[in-house]
Design goal:
The structure holds two protein chains of two kinds.
Chain A (H helix, E strand, L loop, with lengths): L4 H20 L1 H19 L1
Chain B lengths: L1 H24 L7 H23 L6 H22 L2 H16 L1 H19 L8 H7 L1 H9 L18 H12 L2 H25 L4 H12 L2 H7 L5 H20 L3 H17 L2 H8 L1 H10 L4 H26 L8 H4 L20 H13 L1 H4 L9 H5 L14 H16 L12 H18 L3 H33 L5 H7 L8 H10 L5 E5 L12 E3 L20 H11 L1 E7 L1 E4 L8 E4 L8 H8 L6 E3 L2 E5 H10 L26
Parallel strand pairs in B: 1-2, 1-3
Antiparallel strand pairs in B: 3-7, 4-5, 6-7
Classes of the chains: A mainly alpha, B mainly alpha.
């Protein structure tokens, strides 16, 4: 593999995975925060 | 403290029992001190399983198990002294020195210890995972109540024939301590697996800090954290697989018959933790055949390893053959009992993208990045494994020794994809090599970046993954630690903690507190929770209905008159039924409550009219307890009523639904 490509892949691949994961699961995290947020706040209070 | 004390004692006894075996088989010194401890713990745990297996069918009570524990402790004492001897202490001192000299290693140690300890302590919370409540704990509790290990034919649950390495540790814990002790013992296996992950990274030739990173990536996995506070068995199997890989790599570096025997022993013991261990043994076949082709003279050593594995699985297999005619019952029953019932044959089709080549290639991405869409929930949490493990390809020379890891993971993945239910948690057994490869990939990626700005970006991406994963890890800690540390009561914990169907804690506790010796009750709960008394219960089927489920898919018919007569004969004090369940099998894991229609149940259809309008003695959002005598009176009053015929549900397949794993 060309040396110039390696740094690009090392950055772009994990970034792509991260962005795709967040994009696909935004609704999941919103739901979790809505469900568990008050629950955890209740624990702390 | 009693639970922690029991778990600590199991750790020490297992180390002491296993060390002499491992030291003898590793006479050539192929293993490092940490690797020896890992193998010793697993061999010792297997020895404890065998001891309970031998004694339990005759007597399972505090006297027999107490005596057994005393004998095991006495036998283990010399081995333990050697296990904690100069070599181990020197290795520990070297580790401390290295951490003192390296701030990054110190930070990683702190993270590993924080997550490991927090997850281990979560075992002190009352059990509340589905399979734990369904069979991992109820069968051992049933045996304890019966005073011996038996066969619960009337439960019609095939799980009773699953390998019992972890189940027997649970039985010991229930007799000598409690269920929480069993959970902490299971958590120890996760720590062992994390140690195995670190050992794999070191064997790949990476630095100590990368090894710590591998252990951290293993421990932070969402299913691992979830299972560490339970008696689920995927994570314990991961410890065996990590050890198998360590031993295979050691053997590969210096082929030696004794190391191969130890490998076989651990592989067989792993299959006794969970049947998937057999699939793992099979997953070693490609790399073994490859090595055999290169060096045919190792064949006798491999046969010795196979012999050791066969011996390890023999007791369980022989028991199953005697009871069912099938050594791996309920698997492959069509092969062993062609005219009888088959199980799990539809398991492979319930999840995933399909079974074609495109799906095979796309599934790692889909299971990691959009797990809510096609799989059993957010099992792994943030997809750091798929983000970093492939980066090892940037420097193939750095991971030349990784062939066994890649081959075993690849072969097991193919088995999981084509033969097993595609529940993501079933990939946990190969999580140690995956985490090792991800840690290696993280290091390779870092080394590939020359400039400071690129490294800052890379660190930022890593930090984002860490923050997301910290949310999952922290959630479980916030849920379980307060009750684990006694800051809240089990009742409050169960009432407030989101779980799949509820643990039926309140209603089962009601029954447990009021049922007198000799009284019985009828349960239509799914699961018939661990918190309910086990032996006095008729669960979905009545006493004496026996082993019909071995031979056919549908239970024998029971008409209303027959049911009322049997109900009266049993003189049930209580009837406990499921009233609702929670379904989170949707893309956001939003809980949806579904009312249970009792009239669809084989016995419930007779009960439903009698329960209509009857006030329960106790109820929670998912279950209710009724007075058995009052129910009988109402049943007799409506003796002429004939319900219309209904299609019966397949109760036995319930735990393999997609809502099983953490959502």
């Amino acid at each position: 593999m060309r040396a110039r490509l390696k740094p690009l892949i090392a950055i772009l691949w994990p970034a792509a995975v991260l962005i795709a994961y967040l994009a696909y699961n935004l609704a999941y995290f919103e739901e979790k925060i809505a469900t568990f947020g008050p629950f955890f706040l209740g624990l702390l209070s | 403290m009693e639970s922690l004390g029991f778990a600590f004692a199991v750790l020490l006894v297992a180390l002491g029992l296993g060390w002499p075996v491992v030291a003898r088989l590793d006479g050539a010194g192929a293993l490092g001190p940490g690797e020896r401890l890992l193998a010793s713990f697993l061999v010792g745990a297997f020895a404890i399983y065998l001891a309970v297996f031998a004694v339990g069918p005759f007597r399972l009570d505090s006297l027999s198990m107490g005596a057994l524990a005393a004998v095991l402790a006495a036998v283990a004492a010399p081995g333990l002294m050697r296990a904690l001897g100069p070599a181990t202490r020197a290795a520990l001192a070297a580790e401390v020195r290295a951490a003192r000299a390296d701030p990054v290693a110190r930070l990683l140690w702190a993270a590993v210890l924080a997550i490991g300890l927090a997850s281990l302590l979560q075992g002190l919370a009352p059990p509340n995972t589905f399979d734990s409540l369904n069979y991992h704990l109820p069968f051992p509790r049933l045996d304890v109540e019966e005073g011996r290990i038996g066969v619960p034919w009337d439960r019609a649950m095939k799980y009773a024939f699953f390998p019992a390495l972890m189940g027997n540790l649970t039985r010991l814990a229930l007799v000598l301590a409690d269920a929480r002790a069993a959970q902490v013992v299971h958590g120890l296996f996760a720590l062992a697996a994390a140690g195995g992950t670190a050992a794999l990274v070191l064997r790949l030739g990476f630095a100590r800090r990368v090894a710590l990173l591998g252990a951290l990536l293993f421990l932070a996995n969402r299913t691992v954290v979830w299972q560490m506070g339970s008696v689920e068995v995927d994570t314990p199997l991961a410890a065996f697989v990590a050890c198998e890989l360590v031993l295979y790599m050691a053997w590969r570096a210096r082929p030696d018959a004794a190391t191969m025997v130890l490998f076989g022993l651990i592989a067989g013991a792993g299959a006794m933790a969970k049947y998937h261990g057999y699939a793992l043994v099979l997953a070693f076949l490609p790399v073994i055949l490859c090595d055999l082709a290169k060096s045919p003279r190792v064949l006798p050593q491999l046969l010795l390893g196979l012999g050791a594995a066969t011996l390890a699985v023999a007791p369980h297999s022989v028991r199953n053959i005697v009871l069912t005619g099938n050594p791996v019952f309920p698997l492959f029953n069509r092969l062993f009992n062609p005219s009888e019932a088959v199980f799990f044959e539809d398991a492979a089709a319930d999840l995933g993208l399909g079974n074609g080549l495109a799906a095979l290639l796309a599934t790692p991405w889909a299971a990691s990045v959009l797990p809510m869409r096609h799989f059993d929930g957010m099992a792994f949490g943030a997809p750091y494994l798929i983000a970093f493990a492939p980066l090892t390809l940037l420097a193939p020379s750095r991971v030349r020794g990784a062939l066994p890891l890649v081959a075993v993971v690849g072969a097991y993945y193919a088995e999981w994809f084509w033969l097993l239910s595609q529940q993501v948690r079933f990939l946990v057994p190969v999580l140690a090599p995956l985490a090792a490869l991800a840690a290696a990939g993280l290091a390779v990626g870092w080394e590939a970046l020359g400039s400071r700005s690129l490294r800052l970006s890379y660190a930022g991406i890593g930090l984002a993954f860490a923050l997301i994963q910290a949310m999952f890890v922290g959630s479980y800690a916030l849920l379980r630690l307060p009750v684990a540390l006694g800051l809240t009561t089990p009742a409050a914990y169960h009432a407030r903690t989101p779980t799949m169907t509820g643990a039926f804690f309140a209603t089962c506790s009601y029954v447990a507190a009021r049922l007198e010796p000799g009284e019985r009750y009828l349960s239509l709960l799914i699961p018939h929770s661990y918190y309910c008394p086990q032996a006095p219960a008729s669960v979905h089927y009545l006493r004496g209905e026996g082993d019909w489920w071995l031979y056919r898919a549908e239970p024998p018919a029971m008409g209303r008159d027959e049911f009322v007569r049997r109900f009266a004969e049993e003189d049930f004090r209580f009837v406990i039924v499921e009233t609702a369940r929670e379904n989170r099998s949707n893309e956001t894991a939003r809980p949806e409550t579904v009312t249970v229609d009792l009239s669809r149940h084989r016995l419930g259809r007779h009960l439903a009219p009698a329960l209509r309008g009857l006030a329960p003695l106790a109820a929670d959002p998912f279950s209710a307890v009724y007075d058995g005598r009052e129910v009988l009176r109402r049943l007799r009053e409506g003796a002429g009523a004939r319900p219309r015929p209904v299609v019966l549900p397949r109760l036995a397949s319930r735990t393999y639904g997609p809502a099983h794993a953490p959502q």
